[in-house]
Amino acid sequence: MVTESGSLIVALLVTGVFAGLACALGMVSWGGALGGFVVGVIIYVCLGPQGFAVLALFVVGGSALTRLGYRSKERRGIAQPYHGRRGARNALANCGIAVLCALLVVPFSSEVFSAAFVASLGAAFADTAESEVGQLARRTPRLITTLRKVPPGTDGAISMPGTFAGLVAAGLTALLGLWLGLLGGPGVTLLVAGAAFLGTLADSLLGALAPRLGNELTNVLCTLVAASLVSTLA
User: Tens digits of per-residue pLDDT, 79-107?
Assistant: First the structure.
């Protein structure tokens, strides 16, 4: 955990450079860079470079998957708008719960909240992977509640390639958390990966049952489900 004032300066510098590069490379808008900067500084101060590395995996990995086959998605009208650049609302929706978990680590020094932090970002990454890879699937996706075929990009639609990509993203995030010392061991790592994936299933269910909630709110609930499962079961 980082508490020294000197480390705050490091957090500001590292996060500032990362946000600037993300904006320059077209991963985020200026608003997204600012929102990401705030999120990144808080996470770095609370969990050090280890926590920031997990955040960076989500940002870089999510952006790469968004750009995967972007022209094809754009032709079908299902691509992320603004050439895949994420805005401040997206940053807060996907990372708000992670920030809350990181803040709770400071007063409680709890491994549970550290694991919940990794799970929430794992869910955000897995949800992005499922959506972006699933939209490129050759077979028509199916609605999670009825399994009837629906057009790509439909709220609550799932596919085998997208589901597999989500599992991989959740697993990678959990393994990175273990390698960086944020998770207590293999058992917790499996729990975090499973909770992250279940968070994406909750996202799909909400998208199918209540599409009017909107993407941002379902993203918040997706990460909240993952963090809550870990907090309860760890």
Answer: 676 666 788 888 899 999 999 999 999 88
